[in-house]
Design a protein that fits this description.
single chain, Translation Initiation Factor IF3, four-stranded mixed beta sheet, 16 strands, about 35% helix
């Protein structure tokens, strides 16, 4: 039984521990879950991740209740199949997928998932980020998926739904991202549901004015949803990867402030001149550590990145080196455990 202390982190520690436990068939006890948060313990979306992990492996669990700060998880054999997971209201469905995706891909059979709840949330990667940025890199490492969004789900109403087909992995490949390669396309996508059309128009106008992007690089979408919502997504499609920078709208933020926040993050990414953005970096650690390693350049390591490295190293005797190449340029190297 491996024990993981979750006091200094959020739900990410909990989800990463579950994924590692499933892939390695290693029992784990997670203590002090979200202990430093205002509302510590498991929230609904964390509980959905736990029950999803239990379902795909027929595992045994103690502490599976809202507010629980200690969970013991004993995984069984992960079985591919057809699964449906609902977070309730607007809990993040993308975080549920990230918990079970790699274990199911390694289960030597095709799986199909239906995920219901939030698809475009403030404190989690959106469906667009997963689809455009994360999954293509996972495919380079040997895990292929097909995804389809059938309903948008914004906070607080939720009601979103999407479908995932996970193909059985044919073997791991190393991931090396030392440069972006040539820029193939850039695009600003402003999406709104149940809001006046001027919201997306103002967001795109701000991007065009401050970034000098052309009209054919600006896309406004009005989509159906159970409740109102808005997200601005700035996408840079390079030869080797796609960086997605996104800001979810809120009642307290004007359209111009939503765009302003996205533009600040865009300029920060461009200034660093590294391929892997801050939010993508920590998500690459788990598949690279479970696979055959590799390396990537990113900006100064975030708390999420360092936390994920720490959790992974408690499960695996893997070497993860994080070294500065410059003020905003860091090299992350993960060893190949098969050697």
């Amino acid at each position: 039984m491996i024990e993981i202390d979750g006091l200094k982190g959020g739900g990410q520690i909990f989800r990463t521990a579950l994924t590692m436990s499933l892939c390695l068939n290693q029992p784990v006890r997670i203590l002090n879950i979200r202990g430093a948060r205002t509302k510590p313990g498991l929230l609904r979306q964390h509980l959905t991740c736990l029950r999803a992990a239990q379902k795909i492996s027929n595992g045994k669990v103690t502490g599976d209740e809202l507010g629980s700060q200690t969970v013991s998880f004993y995984p069984g054999k992960v079985l591919p199949g057809h699964y449906e997971f609902a977070t309730g209201s607007a809990g993040s469905t993308t975080l549920v997928l990230q918990t079970v995706l790699i274990p199911l891909a390694l289960a030597k059979g095709e799986s199909q998932l239906t995920l219901s709840g939030g698809t475009h949330n403030g404190m989690a990667p959106s469906f667009d980020f997963i689809d455009q940025s994360f999954l293509p890199l996972l495919a380079k490492m040997g895990i292929e998926t097909d995804v389809e969004l059938s309903a948008w789900g914004f906070y607080p109403a939720g009601g979103g739904q999407w479908h995932v087909r996970i193909k059985p992995s044919l073997g791991w490949q190393p991931l090396v991202l030392n440069s972006t390669g040539a820029l193939k396309r850039k695009q600003a996508v402003a999406t709104s549901a149940r809001l006046p059309s001027h919201v997306t128009e103002r967001e795109l106008h701000a991007v065009a004015k401050k970034c000098l992007w052309q009209r054919d690089e600006l896309v406004g979408l009005q989509v159906p949803s159970s409740g109102p919502g808005n997200i601005l997504s700035l996408r840079l499609e390079y030869e080797h990867l796609t960086e997605v920078i996104e800001v979810v709208g809120d009642r307290s933020l004007s359209a111009e402030r939503v765009a302003g926040r996205a533009i600040v993050e865009l300029n920060k990414y461009l200034k660093a001149q590294v391929p892997v953005g801050e939010h993508l970096a920590d998500q690459l650690i788990v598949p690279m550590a479970l696979g055959v390693g590799g390396s990537f350049r990113t900006s100064a390591p975030s708390k999420h990145l360092l936390t994920n490295i720490d959790v992974v190293k408690q499960f695996l005797p893997v070497s993860v080196q994080v070294n500065p190449l410059g003020e905003h340029d860091w090299l992350v190297e993960i060893s190949d455990r098969s050697n």
